[in-house]
Request: fold
Amino acid sequence: MSGNQNYINHVALVLDASSSMSHLNRKVVEVADQQIAYLARRSQELDQETRVTVYVFADKVECVIYDKDVLRMPSLKQMYRVGGMTALLAATLKSQRELAQTAQLYGDHSFLTFVLTDGQENASHRCSDAPSSDPRELVQAVSQLIATQQDNWTLAVLVPDQMGKREAMQCGFPKDNIAIWDATSTQGLEDAGEVIKQATEKFMVGRSQGIRGSRAVFSMGADTVNKDTIEAAGLTPVDPAEYQLIPVARDAEIREWVVESGNTYRTGCAFYQLSKSEKVQARKQIAVLEKKTDRVYTGPEARALLGLPDVEVRVKPDHNDDFTIFVQSTSVNRKLVPNTRLLLMG
Reply:
């Protein structure tokens, strides 16, 4: 195989079309179409070939598009029809087994599948696509399938609640490849689309660094930040004259500490160092500091770099040897943690 490998991504959407999805019928098509348009754009920008497969499932599982060039994809409008029960396990098995028959010659092939469901499995045992009519055997089959997939396979699922998450974990889905979405509203589905988009972005940027698959496609953390991902995300450092780093020596509120260090406090100018797991709102800016050089990167790219969706999300300060995450503070009384640093912009 020559050095200039052709990156080929096989991205599959496995969409729940059971009756309970009927209130989201139009939105599913819109979100899926947006996802495909985004994939097409990023494939061209990153020079990666992307092929899309779409399955819809209710009482039975149907492949409506198979391994089609993302630049030639039609809208899913004519293909997504709701009605019936939820053959979730059968859909997972059929999609992965059929995709596994795709030729992987000449190129660096990688498979990324998102299964989206709004409910619990309740129909696979009666589904002609399932390898067994025993629900326990089906769970085992999915678990076995996931355990034996090669390192260039990534299988992720979006479920409606904690119970769905537990069931997905029993089926062997890695916990960071399971996301919970709000299946009650169109906004919830839009947010789910955003989460899929960010996970795909992280996956595709990772591909350019030679990463073949992921067992933490939804994890939001500093572990995804390194020199290569910074360059790949097109990040340029902030001019050092534009910011200062102030050590935090004691318990203090953010405005008080900014003023005490001889600066003027303006809302949004101060970023605190992420020191514990916490929720970060969509509007909050993120800054990433390279420890060795004290270079700072900010803007929407820094958010994308960490795989953060544009929705409120819980972020862990996953230890990263090279980088520190800072989060914009919009309050005057945020408590600062001693022995951290404060980033002051502007």
Helices lie at 25-46, 88-99, 135-148, 162-170, 186-208, 227-232, 254-260, 300-305. The CA atoms of residues 117 and 275 lie 34 Å apart. The mean pLDDT is 89. The first helix runs from residue 25 to 46.
